[in-house]
Amino acid sequence: MNTVLHMIDTGGIGGAETVYLNLIRDLDHTRWRHVAVIPTRGWLFEQLTNIGVKPIVMSERNSFDPGYFARLAAIIHGEGIEIIQAHLFGSAVRAALLAFVCRIPAVATLHGTIDLQSNERFRRLKVAAVNCGLHRVVFVSELLRRSFLAAIPLRPNRTTVIHNGIDPQRFSSGEGTHFRQEFGISQTEFVIGTIANPGPAKGLDVLLDAAAILKTQSPGCRFVVVGELDHGRGAELIKGRDARGLTNDVVLTGYRSDTHRALAAFDTYALTSRTEGLPLSLLEAMAAELPVVATRCGGPEEIIEDGITGLLVANGSPEAVASSIVRLRSDSYERQRLAKAARQVVETRFTLDRQVQSYGELYSQCLDNRDHPRFSRNPTL
């Protein structure tokens, strides 16, 4: 049995954290033993505890904390860690440095373009560390991989793509009546829903603008946003909704653990992000057999074939979003056709089993090739 150290920058609710959790929970436990390090107590801590994993909570005191690295090195030595799995760019840099010092392979997964900002401090040194210390950089979509390679000098031969995946059966059935009743939504209203935590990348302002258009052009629509509201960005979303006169037209539910019930209450799903890696929420909606409208923001273009498994629209265009929603609302046959095709593509290409198996195979390759000359430690800048 091989032991994996899992690292991540955050402990909240999100796609990267979900992938982190899924790998620990679902990788073959006869082959892989897991040690989880997380920066805070929160959603991820609770989820790990619920599956019987006792995470180690520790974080850096500043941007480069020698004591933090010393503690991690002690964990690697004490737990017999043989490979590191990191998520997000900050953890990728830390994992690369640890792998270099401790002489073990490391893999890092990058989930979106915001993983590395153009004004990142010590950007050149961080990229050098990643090139020097990591055996593989995993991207959740091919478009994301290309965008990173165009922006920074990563070694292409050390990059790979592993698509995110979900369990389609979890979303194969659901009953949305009680969810609608909870929020005062009638069965005759046409519900457009999305699952997203507020933030610039998610483009929820575009969704609100589309809702404002449809309020006059297509009465009887109700919008639902499922996602965190407890922090500053949640307050901004509430303010933006109310400023547009949409208080009664857009329901903001806050965080929900029963997303399958929310999806069952929707008539269509809208993703209006400005940038995405490979959104799990979109896969969940497709698995729930919802017709989807998504902006051309990266990952959705790798999932959806326009007009076949969903509708792709211009990034940042509330008019295009609204027009596609009207198209779906007016054609029940179109909704059914797209929904069934969407479910099929998830079952074929984006399952959790397939994702987890790919990571397991990658770890095995890294362990088999840890002493291979192509993993020399000379960085390329």
The SS-based structural class is alpha/beta
The count of helical stretches stands at: 15
| Shape type | elongated
CATH topology of the largest domain: Rossmann fold
Strand content: 15-25%
- What Rg, in angstroms, do the CA atoms define? 21 Å
Report the mean per-residue pLDDT as an integer. Answer: 92
Major sheet? 7 strands, parallel
CATH architecture annotation name of the largest domain? 3-Layer(aba) Sandwich
> What's the name of the CATH homologous superfamily of the largest domain?
Glycogen Phosphorylase B
Layout of SSEs?
Layout: E1 2-8, H1 15-26, E2 32-38, H2 43-50, E3 56-57, H3 66-79, E4 83-87, H4 89-102, E5 106-110, H5 123-133, E6 136-139, H6 142-151, E7 159-161, H7 177-182, E8 190-195, H8 204-217, E9 221-226, H9 232-243, E10 250-254, H10 259-265, E11 268-271, H11 280-287, E12 292-295, H12 299-303, E13 311-313, H13 318-329, H14 332-349, H15 352-368
Parallel strand pairs: 1-2, 1-4, 2-3, 4-5, 5-6, 6-7, 8-9, 8-11, 9-10, 11-12, 12-13
